[in-house]
Prior knowledge:
Blueprint lengths: L1 H6 L1 H4 L1 H10 L2 E6 L5 H15 L8 E5 L2 H14 L8 E5 L2 E3 L6 E5 H10 L8 E4 L7 H13 L7 E6 L4 H7 L5 E4 L2 H9 L10 E5 L4 H16 L4 E5 L8 H8 L9 E5 L9 H5 L11 E6 L8 H6 L1 E7 L5 H7 L6 E6 H6 L9
Helix pairs in contact: 4-5, 6-7, 9-10
The structure holds adenosine-5'-diphosphate and magnesium ion.
The site of magnesium ion has 3 residues, from helix 4.
Amino acid sequence: MVEFRRSLPAYKARDALLNSISQNQVVVVSGETGCGKTTQLPQYILESEIEAARGAACSIICTQPRRISAMSVAERVAAERGENLGESVGYKVRLEGMKGRDTRLLFFTTSILLRRLLVDRNLQGITHVIVDEIHERGMNEDFLLIVLKELLPRRPELRLILMSATLNAELFSSYFGGAPMIDIPVYEQSILAVCELDWPKDRLLIQVLDDSDDESIQWLIKEEVSKWSQKGVNIIYRHRLVRTGYKAGNLKSAMNCDYVKAYEFVAIFDADFQPNSDFLTQTIPHFKDNPELGLVQARWAFVNKDENLLTRLQNINLCFHFEVEQQVNGVFLNFFGFNGTAGVWRIKALEDSGGWQRGQR
Ligand SMILES: Nc1ncnc2c1ncn2[C@@H]1O[C@H](COP(=O)(O)OP(=O)(O)O)[C@@H](O)[C@H]1O
Ligand SMILES: [Mg+2]
């Protein structure tokens, strides 16, 4: 279990997260689903408080939008710690709860925390409040943020951490006066997934297009690419050259490379999309005997998303097919704003319609 916890993307960001939390009253954390926000970050805080001999004084509340997630996450975290619920980890939802004398980390529903605030305006004794899934906004969630914002000046030592899978972190950061944002990178998992695609290695070129601004992250991604390259994978690292529009500039420059001309299809995965190994064997056959087809697109299938987080990552439902011919430019500029998407394009169809070629070389 320790090994598993260390393998999650959040672990690489552990020190940065803890430092930021110790130095700022509010921190906004984002990172793709499955990277370890919900199960790991509360534990990092708990562990670092214990290491700093403040274990007995610390009291962490992490809110979940739904009762089932509060209960199942508490159960998961206790299991990761080799404990029963009600030892260091517990939960409280309407009409039910599990908490012991030594419980330091409690998973609440949003409404339970609001109720608590009604009777305990200063959240006396609470050291950390983590509001998870802040992108799933409803009345309760918005109201909670308003109440917490108002509380912060009265409790200067209280720490507030906002977590979200999506990238609208700026909105929340600016609501809290420009609170620092930390994005947990998931490049390792994504590169691994693409390198393990089931397809002849000599017929597959992988270009990793990096548009991160942070040099230490660029370096880590380059390292990861060279690791796979040494294993014989045909893989290239490219940092963005142009930044005109989200990903479009980077993509165009990558597609203009001469070596790309030798290829028939281009598969594009958003950075947070981790394809199953059969992704190409599922998508490419759609092009066979179908010269009119320019693009096969895959998208997420949210299956039992509350019951099983893994299914959110692993289920790809191949759906829409649509022709791109006359639309390529527009598509290139507008299409890749989606979160968590992937598609396979017929390079010839893009070329026939003008695509990225014109004026680019
Ligand atoms: N109940 C569970 N059973 C098995 N594995 C789980 C469970 N919950 C989480 N995990 C594993 O832990 C990882 C991190 O999950 P989580 O902390 O919920 O990520 P995030 O909050 O960033 O979406 C998941 O990718 C999954 O592999
Ligand atoms: Mg989560």
